[in-house]
Amino acid sequence: MTRPNDLLLEMQKRMLRIRFFDERASKMVKRGEIPGTVHTSIGQEAQVVGACMALAEGDYMTGNHRSHGHPIGKGAALGPLMAELTGKATGVCGGKGGSMHLADFKVGSLGESGIVGSSIPIATGAALSSKVLGTGRVSLAFFGDGAANQGCLYEAMNLSSVWDLPIVFLCENNQYALSTPAHTVTAGVIAERAAGFAMPGVRVEDGQDVLKVHDAVKTAVDRARAGQGPSLVEVITYRFNEHSEGLKLGTDYRNPAEREAWMKRDPIKMFRAHLIDKGIADAVVLDALEAEVAAEVEAAYQFAEESDYPAASVAFKDLYTEPFGVTQ
Amino acid sequence: MTVMSYLGAIGAAQREAMEADPRVIIMGEDVEANVYGTMGGGKSRADKGDFLQMFGARRIRNTPISEEAMVGAAAGAAMTGLRPIVDLSYSSFLYMAMDQLVNQVAKNRYMFGGQASLPVVFRSAMFFGLNTGAHHSDRPYPMFMNVPGLKIMVPATPSDAKGLLRTAVDMDDPVLSFEACILWGLKEEVDEGEYRIPFGVARTHRHGNDVTIVGISTGVHAALQAAQKLEAEGISAEVIDPRTMVPLDSDAILNSVARTGRLVIVDPAHTTCGAAAEISAIVAEKAFDCLRGPIMRVTTPDTQIPFSPAIEKQLYPDAAKTIAAVKRTMEARTRAA
Ligand SMILES: Cc1ncc(C[n+]2csc(CCOP(=O)(O)OP(=O)(O)O)c2C)c(N)n1
Ligand SMILES: [Mg+2]
């Protein structure tokens, strides 16, 4: 697949956004600036961005608790996302979602889910509305290797296959569900499960390579948009941080050597080298890009910091389209 | 006006809504073949496959037996421009989709700060009283009253079913409709034209001065029969049907109790944490000074539903139990006086 240079640079930019945003969020958790739980996508940026950028602007997407990368990858503004993490009124969900429940409908992000697997049927419904209304939009459901053992995935795969829905099921196989190695709880190969639902299933073995992910997901998206139905794409990747920030487990469930080997395959460093190697951009341009994204994240942080908390009455807002009952 | 059954009225409301708005679709198990008779719309059970012929397979969609995917997909579709009606057939099957109903349908608008609207209706029939055993006899609306974000309708008559369901489809919030199977054949004169009954407005079926009887779903009919018999004994009962449990027209109940001083609630759900328990608490909190006798609940005892016809029916509220409850609370007054 040939890709214009600006698309390639945009990929690097979005990966950097996720990395810097999540590094900042991690620091904020340590400093007590973010209440609650935070799961970063550090190390998985290629998998997220390769998938998101295979979608068109108007396409839909749902995700999970490892949530920041998805809307960022889809092009969401960073300020309201950061403000959401700190529970501010200017947050993308007005401070009512938080880290695990980001949604930015402006970029087709229909919501992340704190319940593992639970957003998969929602993405399926977005594909259904696209099909019934004839809007041509494609829907993509992000979920982990852990979620791949939830029953609702298979209900959704079967339903979307018999209805030929324009959806891509994207399994982010970072090889662990919290402390549980995927191979100890998962029979067979996740991608091969697609065969049971009469849809293509592909496994991207090198999910640290943004172009490989992009290729595979683009094929699935094009197929969906052409009315040929759903696909399952499994991407093998690795999270560099702990399952969630600040989590300290008694057992060393991940082999340090394994982690070190994967850390060497940093998707952002790898793609930077690729861009230089192919003469698409030089170090000066790429350094400038990094500085630009660092400034964006800093501005997002400032925005969040300077924003006010929501009024107490906001806790009663948006439950229904018109309020009734307890409203303050 | 025309005579319609409860089932026919549900069909008529769906047909109206389907005709009025191309974004309305119906999905569920066996809906194409109109197995339960609500996919025709009209006087009673319509011809086989009526809606399928009228609206086509794009809008009338048979689903696999996958309640979780069905409910979640309807929610996702509602968030992106459709207005689905989901036919879940039996209310007992809602549990299969509990995660989607509670974690997605009820929470998405709130959690995403109002970015999402979920104009979707989940219809299901409560098959209690028909010897279908414990797996098909649930009356689970009180469980969902405990989930903020959902609206709940429990129609007791054909005309209420038609008007409430039409409102539900037009509404931008998710609605659960609990239809009592035992009322399916109930007939009355119904306006065949379009009309809508607002949610949160109770219907006073009968005025009275001595006691307020709140009836829910089939409980309305038990209450009306009881009121008629009590009249012969010189006791004047007011019968109120809230019609929607969320929002609940507590003002109508409180105003009535303020006049009668007594409250009996007839609710076919289980006793503990049931709809009757909630109404009792509201009245005890807000109208304590008006009460002249204990609030009485006529509910289904906290046991599962047995199959044997010899032992099922007597578990549910009926007119005799309602009369006994009224007398209990009336006696309390005599003692006090
Ligand atoms: C239904 C449900 N069960 C359990 C959890 C607790 N939990 C949160 S994340 C997680 C692991 C998820 O693993 P995976 O799907 O592989 O995603 P990853 O965290 O690896 O990105 C678990 C068990 C949950 N949030 N929801
Ligand atoms: Mg995982």
Bound small molecules, deduplicated? thiamine diphosphate, magnesium ion
Q: What's the number of domains of chain B?
A: 2
- What number of domains of chain A? 1
Gross morphology of chain A is: globular
Q: CATH top level of chain A?
A: Alpha Beta
Average pLDDT taken over every residue of chain A? 97
Largest sheet report of chain B: 7 strands, mixed
Instruction: Give the helix/strand class of chain A.
Output: alpha/beta
The first-level CATH class of the largest domain in chain B is given as Alpha Beta
- The number of helices of chain A is 11
**Please, what is the average pLDDT of chain B?**
95
CATH domain topology of the largest domain in chain B: Rossmann fold
How would a textbook summarize the main sheet of chain A? Answer: 5 strands, parallel
**What fold name stands as the CATH topology of chain A?**
Rossmann fold
Percent strand of chain A equals 5-15%
Number of helices of chain B: 11
Describe this structure in words.
- The complex is a heterodimer of chains A (328) and B (337).
- Chain A is of the alpha/beta class and 328 residues long.
- Chain A has a single domain, classed as 3-Layer(aba) Sandwich (Rossmann fold), CATH 3.40.50.970.
- Chain A is 41% helix and 9% strand.
- Chain A is built from eleven helices and seven strands.
- Chain A has helices at 5-30, 45-52, 69-73, 78-85, 120-133, 151-162, 182-185, 210-225, 256-263, 267-277, 283-306; strands at 60-62, 139-144, 167-173, 176-177, 180-181, 201-204, 231-236.
- Chain A has a five-stranded parallel sheet, with helices on both faces. In chain A, strands 4-5 form a two-stranded antiparallel sheet.
- Chain A is globular.
- The mean pLDDT of chain A is 97.
- Chain B is of the alpha/beta class.
- The mean pLDDT of chain B is 95.
- The longest helix of chain B is centred in the C-terminal third of the chain and has 18 residues, at 319-336.
- Chain B has helices at 6-20, 50-55, 67-79, 98-105, 108-111, 141-145, 158-170, 218-232, 250-260, 275-286, 319-336, and strands at residues 2-5, 24-28, 60-62, 83-90, 121-126, 151-153, 175-180, 187-190, 203-206, 211-215, 237-241, 244-246, 263-270, 296-300.
- Chain B folds into two domains: 2-190, Rossmann fold; 203-331, Rossmann fold (3-Layer(aba) Sandwich), CATH 3.40.50.
- Chain B is globular, with a radius of gyration of 20 Å.
- Chain B is built from eleven helices and 14 strands.
- The interface between A and B is large, with 50 and 45 residues.
- The structure holds thiamine diphosphate and magnesium ion.
- Residues 65-66, 114-116, 144-147, 172, 174, 176-178, 243 of chain A line the site of thiamine diphosphate (TPP).
